[in-house]
Amino acid sequence: MPLLTDRMIRAAKLDVNVYEEVEADKSAMGQAMWVVVLSSVAAGIGSSGTTGVSGLLIGTIVALIAWFVWAFITYFVGTKILPEPQTSADYGELLRTIGFSSSPGVIRILGIIPFLGWVINIIAGIWMLIAMVIAVRQALDYKSTGRAVGVCLIGWIIQFIIIFGVFFLFGGGGQPS
Length: 177
Hints:
The structure is a single chain. About 75% of the residues lie in helices and about 0% in strands. With about 180 residues, it is an all-alpha fold. The chain has one domain.
């Protein structure tokens, strides 16, 4: 466990070396998944006043699915559509690095503090996005941070459309039953 917490702290500090480390460490997949779960649970606890226990469970499941989807989309866009000449990555490398980019999200547990939750969520969201760009840049061996930003943005838009579509199809469309 100390290795996990050390890696999470380094990832939250935006340490480029930790993203290279987890990219190369095939055994870090479980750790990356735990980071996503911990970040999701922290967000659920932070918003428990509005979501309750069911929101925590559903939020964690959705976060894990979103992690897999976003990593796959990022892999496809980053390696097939917008690669740089030196780009070399596999899906697992992106899962691991993107998983660790969720490390700053554990601060969302502080969202339980009245009147501060929305500020903490904004800070965590921006921090996680910056970490994601670094994770993608390192996993895809990009020299250009701008390209990593573009890949993350394209991946986020596609992921949003997919999740919105699924939500709409399975009862989130506001239609009475």
